[in-house]
Fold these 2 entries.
Entry 1:
Amino acid sequence: MPRTGHGGSTSNAGNLGVRTGSQEADAQSLLALFTSADDPYGCHVSSFGGGQFLDLAELTDDERVLRQEAHRIAVEVLRPAAWSLDRMTPMERISPGSPFFTAMATLKSLGYHRLFLPPEAGGPDQRLSALTQSVVLEELGWGSLGLATAFLVDMLPVMCMSNFGSQELKDDLMVPWVDDETGSYHGCWAITEPDHGSDFISVRDSESSTYGRAQLVAERVDGGWVLRGQKSAWVSSGPIATHAAVHAQAGGDGDLVHSLFAVVDLDQPGVRRGPPADMMGVRDDPQGEIFFDGVAVPERNVLVPPGPLYPAFQDQLLCLTSSVISNVAVGVARAAFEEALHHARTRIQGGGQLSRHKNIQLTLYGMFERVETARAYTRAALAHTQANLPGASELAAGASPRHSRAAQVFAKRIAYEVAHDALQVVGAQGLSHDALVEKLFRDARSLLIEDGTLEVLALDAARDLIDNYERTDYDLEEMMATW
Ligand SMILES: Cc1cc2nc3c(=O)[nH]c(=O)nc-3n(C[C@H](O)[C@H](O)[C@H](O)COP(=O)(O)OP(=O)(O)OC[C@H]3O[C@@H](n4cnc5c(N)ncnc54)[C@H](O)[C@@H]3O)c2cc1C
């Protein structure tokens, strides 16, 4: 029986590490919070399609079970929670009892946070294939872009600890985090700063040495580092996270790539949070500033010290985040397409079903074509990235930045275009706050900025392809040598 977590207390469905059937008893009480008629926030659940569509990939039985399970969670947990959160004030969203915490606790109680980890870090005994990861990510994105983002930023510090952490850090922090089934731990990724948004994404820009002093600086002290400064107001889950994966410029001199990467406990003196941001989209994940006023970071929490490894690490981390978010974006696009398809089949206009009109047919076809092509490319990019990240195997020479950035740019653009077309198909109803397609449009628009703007990601990819097009492997050594 595969293991899911260090406690080894759960058994698994389909050998893939997510609880189903009788093991869901505890989770059901959490789910009931969303499905109860007494739900104080009200629910809007659109599950049209039921997760049924022809997937051109050959899924195994296990993979099919996992997709059904992830879709069920998207329908029963993520969509209702996201719908409620979207209508709440920023402070309501982060107050105790908010659907945000219940949704996160449900995902943890079901073991989703372990699903993507290697076996040695508490993941399934057999590591999830890249295809299965893509399938699950698409379902999470279909359910809620914000909650999928919260899920991913929670995993980021854990994944980095599993690769770069000392045994002591793993035992003290990673193991309880992975074993947690109630949502006691929550991570965030604190990289951008008020005056350095795109700057942190433009690692390959030859002018990056002119970007100036970072706003979060790490100073060397006995036994570790001290952090002073702040991160931007857009840190996903920043207002509620217990720990942050932090990029901080070492000493405050040189380029932004003269930085370190550390996991920082946010429940300690010197940490302060700004108010949660009130954004147009992705409102189901709270974003906010984190201030650091003399915050101690012990040496063991520094996963990547300042030095030649840091720029290569950051570049490869962006390959991973780009490949992952691109699969989530496909889920957003599919959700918008399915809303439009359902509407076109059921709305009567012009003497018959909307779907009888040629312009609607062509629009639906165009949306379908884009979702399908985005799915194919983003899956290929994630598979390449997973296989080639340093450490993935003895032969792994690094993932391709130009391909992962292209996947992110392509999938985000398609999510936006499809959501835009869906709104047009739905007509005035789609502009109403009561329409899911209206939320999907706002989310898809926000996605063009989240995790790097399309322009900056495309420029980064362009620099890589101009310099490295003929190379089939990533030149980690050259990058370290030129640091
Ligand atoms: C929903 C959401 C979630 C987010 N989550 C996180 C998170 O978890 N952690 C985190 O740290 N940050 C997060 N961010 C921040 C996000 O990464 C930044 O917003 C993004 O990188 C762009 O930075 P900026 O908003 O400061 O825009 P700017 O960098 O100011 O860019 C403004 C405009 O100028 C263009 N531009 C900027 N620089 C260049 C350049 N060098 N060349 C050409 N064009 C340029 C951009 O394309 C853009 O159109 C999130 C943002 C959003 C919207």
Entry 2:
Amino acid sequence: MSTYVVGDIQGCFAPFKNLLKKVKFNPDKDRLWSVGDLVNRGPKNLETLRWFYDHRDNVTMVLGNHDLHLMACSAGARRPSRKDNIDDILEAPDREKLIEWLHFQPLAHSEDGVTLVHAGIPPMWTIQNTLDRAWEVENAIQGARCKDFFDEMYGNEPIVWDDSLSGMTRLRVITNYITRMLANKSQVNFAGRGNPFGGGFPDPPRLASHADTFGSVLTRPPPACQLNPLSLSNTVTSASPPSLKRCK
Ligand SMILES: [Mn+2]
């Protein structure tokens, strides 16, 4: 049995399938971890999401900002922008089943000393802090009032964490750190390209293994031009999206 980790697929279904073929992914034995952003920008969003749903017993994923945006659009909290191409999902006959499944995916996952998040973990949080705070957001997304969360999710403020934050403001900061953070020491830069809150085309997906004081963190690394608060010990970059890395 092998576990593979894949970066942002963003609807690039054909390259994703080619990678699975290349590593001879066996859904009967192997597991796939995804850092999220399954959809948006690429040509085959519906096929990508259906593949993950169909292989849900073999998949561990965390939510990315584009996945959250899809759910917000589906819940009526947001309208897709002209840069979004998630209409194939929003108009699909099985949309409800697919998006409901997405609602129950976590923002952070930790197993055997490896932690998976989409964008990053601020250096002042422990892994346990991250899992606890991710759960606060997951709880909101899984609840009957999830639209209230999606209504308040968008925005960059505040950018500095404070334990006393509460309500939707707190949930927004947690979401921004875990799913949109580009670089920080005590602050977060959300002004980068490639997210539905900011616009632009995403950077090519890459994978990294962070070895920090808390253990290993797998996340999409920040662009090379930006400082990373956690020392990158093993960065794997791919020429074209998406990329797969054999984890264990
Ligand atoms: Mn993203």
